[in-house]
Amino acid sequence: MKAGRRVLATVRGGAYGAGTPREGWDHASGWMRRILEDVWKLDLRVVETEFTLAGVNPQLDEFKELAAEMRSEAEELARAHGRSLSAMLAR
């Protein structure tokens, strides 16, 4: 694999981040990072967002505003990573 930065985008329907009732239940992101960063030695940038099922799953409806904020932040981070990757490739 060609050296350089890569972006890993992860989404979770619920919330498994620090301080949530299901903290630690995200069993996918950790091993993906481990492989991409530690094994393949990629310069990895990660974009994560949660509550992607708010507005779809009625049990998560109370989190719609938080979900929209998280999505907006993730989209801005993804754009920033994209600009950084583009600048790196332009050199």
Question: In summary, what is this structure?
Answer:
With 91 residues, the protein is of the alpha+beta class. The protein has helices spanning 29-39, 64-90; strands at residues 5-11, 43-49.
Secondary structure layout:
Layout: E1 5-11, H1 29-39, E2 43-49, H2 64-90
Structural domains: how many: 1
Percentage of helical residues?
Answer: 40-55%
* Beta-strand content bin: 15-25%
Largest sheet: spatial strand order: 1-2
Shape: flat
Assign the structural class, choosing from mainly alpha, mainly beta, alpha/beta, alpha+beta, or little secondary structure.
Answer: alpha+beta
N to C succession of SSEs: EHEH
- What is the radius of gyration? 15 Å
Put simply, the count of helices is 2
Q: Could you tell me the number of beta strands?
A: 2
Mean pLDDT: 88
Question: Which consecutive residue ranges, at least 5 long each, have pLDDT under 50?
Answer: none
Distance N to C terminus: 19 Å
Described by strand count, sense and barrel closure, the largest sheet is:
2 strands, parallel
